[in-house]
Amino acid sequence: MSWGFLRDLLSGVNKYSTGIGRIWVAVVFIFRLLVYIAAAENIWKYEHDEFECNIKQPGCENVCFDHFFPVSHIRLWALQLIMVSTPSLLVVFHVAYRENREKHHNQKLYKSPGEIDGGLLCTYLISLILKTGFEIVFLVLFYKLYNGFKVPRLVKCDIRPCPNTVDCYISKPTEKMIFICFLVATSCVCIVLNLSELSYLTFKYSIKCYLKRYIKKHQ
User: Of 182, 191, 181, which Cα lies nearest the Cα of 135?
Assistant: First the structure.
């Protein structure tokens, strides 16, 4: 999979972000995207081939693997990366809309098309809420699908066509668990950053609106 589009998207969003938003972009790009590309993909690359059960009954290994891993960790991680990054497109599109509007009218309509205020502020806040929501949804999904964040060395399977309860062994469980813990930790960091930025912007513009009304009232 080519991740160039995500890199370009994050680079574009970085121009219109607050300080906290830039930290979020750095965390997603360095500690999630690069880690995924450089290491995580290879660890889960042959997970199905390396999943072994102590029986050679045709179809048994396949149904056991499908039962314990309905969706591959790495594919779910990739989907999470895409979903938490795409709300930032709303901000990029809004800025592009402002720029096109200024070109169309051939005059300066905004102090700066990328300045977070007015409609762009609402778009930015919505993107933060969506990103936080996606992060939480995927963490819950990970937990529910795999019965927690641990990767067991051994699982017992008694699903047909297995003739009885068989032992199945998962490859590289310790290494996989380290990466899953890293994934969960970086997701939590991103949630904290999103909520911090949301609180900061809400507080900042609430004070700004209050001061404007106060000045108007006492003029």
Answer: 191
Cα Rg, the chain, nearest whole Å: 23
Q: Is the peptide bond before 161 cis (omega within 30 degrees of 0)?
A: yes
Q: Phi/psi class of residue 64: alpha, beta or left (left: φ > 0; alpha: ψ in -120 to 50)?
A: alpha
Q: How far apart are CA 4 and CA 214, in angstroms?
A: 48
C-alpha atoms less than 13 angstroms from C-alpha of 186 in its C-beta half-sphere = 24
Q: Is the pLDDT of residue 85 over 60?
A: yes
Do residues 151 and 170 lie in contact, with contact meaning Cβ atoms separated by under 8 Å?
yes
- Across 68-87, average pLDDT: 86
Phi, psi of 183 (to 5 degrees): -60, -45
On the CB side of 9, CA atoms within 13 Å amount to: 19
d(CA 171, CA 49): 9
Phi, psi values for residue 50, rounded to 5°: -90, 0
Q: Band of the pLDDT at 140, cuts 50, 70, 90?
A: very high
Q: Which two tokens stand for residue 205?
A: 């513009």
Across the chain, what does the average pLDDT equal?
A: 81
